[in-house]
Amino acid sequence: MIDYSWNSTEHCPPCFYGSICQLTTFYYSISLESFLYTSFSTVEVLIVLIFVFALGTVCNFLSIATFAQATAREMGSGIYRLWISIVGQVTLVIVTIRLLMIIRKKTSRWIDCFVFDYSISALVPLFYSLTVCLAVERIVVAYKHLSFDKQQSRRAAKKLIPVLMIYHFVLALYKPIHRQLRVEFNRTECSYHFQTQSQINFERLINILHLILPILVNFFSPLILIVILIEHKRSLKPTATFLSKFVDVVRTYKHNLISPLLLVTLTLPHLLITLHFHCISQSKQNIIYLFTYTLSLIPFVSTFFIFVLLSPKYREEFSKLYQRRY
């Protein structure tokens, strides 16, 4: 009788796990195949997964409905928010289907391994790239102030979003090439197989950059925003103290400062699971890995809270939508 538990991990080389040490997260990527080895009850996992999916779907559709209004897309930022919500929902749907198939079937299939995993590997970095565009536009708006051109911003967003989509989906094309289905003891598993060290290094680099760069941009963008806005205040109120200008900026623009920092906070589980658990060496890491992976889905669930409820402008847009509905 083959032992499919993660206890077999203790007999595997460093960074490998599975019944015969055939799986790895060594490439700084999240492995959904880990759920093949979950020690949790199927019912418990399904309840959590369905709850996350239902909550995320409601929030994303409310967010999409808000930004689908023309008045909410007067600037590029509204277009970025719309597509962040759309990409977040599509990612949530594909991840949920992928996990349901793994949990229920306890095996992987061709469409899971090559289609769903490919889509996830392109959609997740696309989601974070769009948040970078939004953060950069906030800085541009603050810097240009009254000279900011809304129409030009809209045109730039409409051109940049397709470019980002093409970039991420084309760049991810190499991933299915290095995927393979292994049949081990009546179970089919999807795993990576790289032939050269340069291929491994490229995979690691891409996975790290697509996660680290958005976190850095979203973390430092509020700081840059504060500096720019304080400089504007200095020109308007030269006699005011630095502290008073700082407090005024934070009070007035707190929604623009909180949302990127909140996004960074919600992305930390993804960063943790990618960096800290890139080398699974102990079976007890199973529970922490799966719990952290669940937390890493939160950014795709919380778009309505981050991009609508935190912003006075878009709260008003949502209120208009609600009023028209009733």
From TrEMBL:
Keywords: Membrane, Transmembrane, Transmembrane helix. Gene3D superfamilies: Rhodopsin 7-helix transmembrane proteins. Its main location: membrane. SUPFAM superfamilies: Family A G protein-coupled receptor-like. It is found in: Membrane. Residues 59-307 form the G-protein coupled receptors family 1 profile domain. The keyword Coiled coil does not apply. The chain crosses the membrane at residues 45-68, 80-103, 115-140, 160-177, 208-230, 261-281, 287-310. GO terms for cellular component: membrane. PROSITE patterns: G_PROTEIN_RECEP_F1_2 (PS50262). This is G-protein coupled receptors family 1 profile domain-containing protein. It comes from Adineta ricciae. The lineage of its organism: Eukaryota, Metazoa, Spiralia, Gnathifera, Rotifera.
